[in-house]
Amino acid sequence: MNPPDISLPPAFLQRLTAILSPENYAQFLRVFNSERLTSFRINTLKISPDAVLGKLDLDVTPIDWCQNAYYVPTAQKRLLTQTSYFSEGEIYIQNASSLFASLALDPNPGEEILDLAAAPGGKTLHIADLMHNQGRIAAIEPVRDRFFKLRSNINLAGANIVATYCKDGSALWRVVPARFDRVLLDAPCSAEARFDPKDPKSFAFWSEKKILEMNRKQKKLIYSAIKCLKPGGSLIYCTCSYAPEENEAIIQYALDKFGKSIEVQPLAIPFDNYQTGLTHWHKEVFDESLVNTIRIIPNELMAGFYIAKLRVIPA
Ligand code: SAM
Question: Could you tell me the pLDDT band of residue 17, with boundaries at 50, 70 and 90?
Fold first, then answer.
């Protein structure tokens, strides 16, 4: 298989050949230079899907596994962002992989949810919509300009069950232990799955050192996320990285720390472009239950992503 006609770091590609199956690696290379469809979600907290769809003069296709979410050709993305629906927070452009993460969290109206790494808020808003604005969401973001963007997106979308906190998520467990029904940890990561051939800066600073730096941060965050869960509560851990050090190794770290009090749960997956989690990487061997986690393989519809679901087993 020929590498893509841009200079992705050779060490990154080499690692990817060990992470992905040969077919999935070939798919990664095939879609890297091609344009993905644009996906968006209609915010039913503000407007009904019929009111938007009746007026949008675009080639809209529903995403069959996500209510109120649609694809448009990428050439029409600009037209979409020029509508008042977009500027009024009635639609939100979001990758389909990210839509799946909020669905996998499976939030219910009335629950108390923690979004531990929330800005700019795409998943927070989707969760608020799934909860019909009933219950409570605590959304955490420590980086100030990102925090203000989060706040403005939440206000614009009318997601009034969200309380925002400009705080470090890794310290939160000391303040609100065993409090939440569900936690989403969409962790800061090396963003390998967001490398963009039109923006070489997106991969210019990739390094294994950066992956290990993220690994240290992610361990602190997942520890905090699990401590914040009630018995019986569940966690979605996800990243837009392919690196096992940021994915399976973090789940293994949680299993080592919390032992039999947590379990990795299977995900109900409504598409077939994924690979199950690895059970070993280099010299590290992971628990068999890591096959319940998934790595979404990028295609014309979705970006790459890793998702794991954990549950705190009631005593
Ligand atoms: N969930 C967001 C969404 O769907 O719009 C995207 C989250 S992004 C992948 C990860 C976020 O984690 C970034 O905004 C980053 O600033 C934030 N972050 C970095 N360090 C953090 C920490 N210690 N605690 C909480 N969030 C952190």
Answer: very high
